[in-house]
Design a protein that fits this description.
The structure holds two protein chains of two kinds. Chain A is an alpha+beta fold. Helix content of chain A is 67%, strand content 13%. Chain A has a three-stranded antiparallel beta sheet. Classes of the chains: A alpha+beta, B alpha+beta.
Chain lengths: 109, 148
Amino acid sequence: VHYTAPLDRTFFALSDPTRRRILELLGHGPATISELAEPFGLTLNGVKKHVAVLEDAELVTTEKVGRARECRLGPAELAEAAQWIAQYRRAWEGRLDRFANHVEQRRRR
Amino acid sequence: VTHDLEFTRLIDATPEEVFDAFTDPQGQEAFYGQDDPGWIVESHCDLRVGGVWTVDFGPSRHELYRHRHVFQVIDRPRRLVLASTETRLDGSSFHTTLEFRFEAQDGKTLMTMARGFPTVELRDEHTRGLPNAFDRLERIVGRQRPSD
């Protein structure tokens, strides 16, 4: 697996509810900055800032189309983050299982 | 503190026994160990507030992950809070807060591991009761996959 954006950046990007809602909206298809601004009642500049953070984490890509800037999901990055999350959960679950067994076995001795 | 991931285990032992096992070398080795032959766990723990617990673990000398924890709260036998940095094989790292709680329950101990983000944004979000970032991310990915 090739990690292009540090996970810290990815999770920082995902830590904001507005940015997560932007990702959800983009999950339905590409949208321009002004189309994204409307449902949130945000200014264009406000949305641009959020999109810039998402773009920095490579969760979103943008492209100038005519006079508008179109945003779309960076699907590889989301899949990578989701894969990492699944591995992370499994690792911690496994640690707790092994530790619980260790404590209980030690107690029985 | 905001926690976005929580795992629990009910362990047949007292909170003191579980806490002490978790902070001794054998328990830490069990925590990070695996049954795979040759699996390496090297744990060095300075159990005091501000003290550092480092763990290198992995399948071989050439593939070692590193967790570096700094003890922020030590409240035996109830609670441990660690500021953690997890470094992966590619050198990238991930900063987080880990809280371990040990609560007596019906003669056993409910051990909880909670992971939190040290960002103000997430703390504020938590107070508004919004779902956590990971679950929402997984839903987004799930929704996205059919059109891949």
